[in-house]
Each structure stands twice: as C-alpha cells, then as structure tokens.
Amino acid sequence: MRSSQFSPLALFLQTYTHHVSLAENVPSAMPSSSSSTPSSFPTVNELSKAAALFSGPIEEVATHPEFKWLKSPLWSESNQYLLFSNVKWEDKQNAMCGMIWKYSDANGVEKFRKCSGLIGSGDEPENLDDYLEAGLNGLVWGWKGDGDLLICQHGKHRIVRINVSDVQADAEQGGSIDSSLVTILADAYNNTMLNSPNDMFLYGSDLYFTDPPFGLQLASADNTFSHAFEIMPQNPSIYVISGDPGDNVTAVPEKVLDFGKPDHPYGPNGVIVVDNGDLITPITDFSNPHIEVYSEKDPDVFTRLETEYSIEGENADYPPLNDGATYSSDLNVVFSTSPGGIYMYDASDSYKFLGFLRINDLVSNVEIGGGYLWMTANRRLLRIPLEQKATTSSPSANAGETKSPNSSGASSPSSAPNGSPSSKESASSATFGANFALYSWAAVMSLIVLFM
User: Fold this and answer.
1) Residue 303 maps to which CATH number?
2) Of 326, 331, 330, which is closest to residue 405 (Cα–Cα)?
3) Torsions phi, psi for 184 (to 5 deg)
4) What is the span of the domain harbouring residue 421?
5) Are 193 and 233 in contact (CB under 8 A)?
6) Distance of CA 426 to the CA centre of its chain
C-alpha cells in the first residue's frame, strides 16, 4: 500500500497484458547488438484513431557507434535543437558516466557534455567502475525556460542545474563546464541521500521527479536489477519541489507518493502531470507493466492503464519495458513509452486508448517539438511528423516556456551498435525519400479515420 497526497480514480481499463520472458539478470537480458531499422510506415490497424495525429512515416534521425542507452529527448523551441541523454556512455577510463548529445537538422549529432552524470561538486562513488548506470537520465528545462537545464544524475544520486550557455562546446569530445557553475538542486530526503533521480516534469512552478533505484545497479552483483532494490537508501518514490528555489540553492523536496518496499523489482519510472492535475507514472514491472494515474480529487484509488502489445520480430526477447511519458496540452493526448512502442491515450476522455505506434525496440522516452514526436529507442533517435503543431508543455507552466522530457530507464543495453554518426545529409535524405509518401500518408489516414 503506497502513501499518497494524490488520488487515483477508481477505474480499471481491462485489457490483456502480453509480455516477453525476462532472464534473471536484467542487464544481460538487454540487447547487445544493433537493433533493426523500423519500418517506414506505422501499422494502420494498431494506430487506430491515433493515426490522425501523424502526417508521415517514422524517420531514423541519428545513430552513432557510441550510442548505448538513449533517454530523455528535450526540445529547445527557441534554438531549434534537441538534447538527449546517453545513460551508459563510457569515458576513456571505461566509467559509465553518461553523455548529453545534441541534434539539429543543421549540424546533425554532436557531443554536448561528457560525463554529465558526475559534473558538479562532490565526490564520485568509490566503486564508480562497478556502476552500470553512473550517467545522467532525465532532462528538463527549469523555471527560467530554455537554457535552464535540470539533469538527473545517477552517479551522484541527485538533480543538478546548469545554464547551457556555460558549457564550453566541443562537438567531437564533449563540452565542459566549471563545477562552480553547477547547482545541486536536490540530493536528499529527510537527510538521507536519494536513490537515483530518474525523470522530471515541470507543471507550472512545481517540479515532479521520480526516484527509483534503477541507477544503483552494480556489475558485481549476481542479479544487478534486484540487488539495486536491496541496497536502495529510499523507498521508490515521487517527489515535488514547489517553486524555483533560486540560483545556487539546494531545495528540500516533498514526498508525493511512496511505493514502499516492493516484494519484487517494481517502481515508478517516468512522470507527467496533465491539465486537470492528474499525475501519471509508467510503472516499470517486468511481470506486469502498466501505467498508473493519480488524481487529487479521490484519495483512495487509482486508474490503471494496461499495456496490450509486446515487441515482435528479432527483438522479441527484450524485456517488456514501461518507461517514460509525455503530454501535450495542444493535443490533449498522453504518449507513453511502453512494451513494443508508443501508447496514446485521450486525456479528455478518461484516458481512452487511442492507438499504438509500433517500434519493435526498447523505447525509453518521447518528446514533442519542432513539428515532430521524438523518440529515443535503444541506440537510435527517431521522429515522426505530427499533423498538428504542438509542444510538450502544460498551459499552467510559466508563459508556456517550460518543456518537459520524459522518463528514464530501468535497466539498459550493454554495448553500442556498429555504425557511424548520422548527419544533416542522412536525415535530409530520409526526409527526401519520404516526401511523396507523406502526402499519400495524410490522405490515407484521413480516409481511414473518417470510416472508423
């Protein structure tokens, strides 16, 4: 039984949950070779009414030989670029300290900030070489909007804050930043360190974040994922920081949901808050992946959204990962990264299931920006064009400036694929090849939705 200041609605949307078997050692069950390229066009019968949201095929925007486990795409509307995290990126000393990558149509993929899971003051873990995920995870723009970057650090069990203009750029090696310019935003609850902050969402002036123990996985443990739950200093929880604490100030978070000591690896991964105040969190539970919806109106029960699909094809043995989510006020749609791809729910109609966008890979997070739905899928950055211009934001956010990424990851791939960095040319080529298809797609989708 979890304690809560939120209330779940007492509605259970019943569907069958299909999942693939999971080896006892979760990280070793993750893929170790490059994944298949997604099909150009989503499956129409699975998309159902959600087909009306899109105007073209899925594009593989970027791959790179150093991509391992990509997370948390974050769109900059003012500068027209995307940041995203690489939890398991390794430095030259083979420490998995993480990388923030940057993508733009003009410049392709660039390294933005290396070892982002460890930047700022404070000691690194003594057993850093034993950490499987000492990098960063969630990214979100803070209270000041674009440029005010908040970073979930697994390696140092905290959330930090930087101004992107303070990063000394080095597109080939990864930029640097002086430690004095890194603010520790949150690192403890009740004077005990956090587990490994995972995902964030800024709703108005309130910053929500999840804190499962996924970043505590150690290579030396017999069962790395289960062991993380045995050594976690806090119960898996969701917290809130109410209001901007100010420059160079460490906040005191308030606990919103406490998931207790689970009897098996289980906990909140991503987090979003929709217009009506409902808090939504995809639950990472390989035996029963689902999504939980909490409302302030009813303190006793919660809505449970099941996940019906699973990964098919050559990646069918990947675990049924439930990870991140995002929400667009413009569309009033919740997008969740769940087993097999993206699940879409109508936030204006009791979270009625709209459709499924099949990826057939481990999809960690989604973001809306620049006319696209962006997806971090294992070792690839993907996007699909939206029919309607939208942003990932809440109308209650400050002047509409804040954008929220999504969730973060439970366990993760263990090695990089073969391949080379994508560039402006490769992305443009994919787009050019699909130009005629885009118009056909829009026409076909309109007819399908009309006759549903």
Assistant:
1) 2.120.10.30
2) 326
3) -80, 110
4) 3-450
5) yes
6) 25
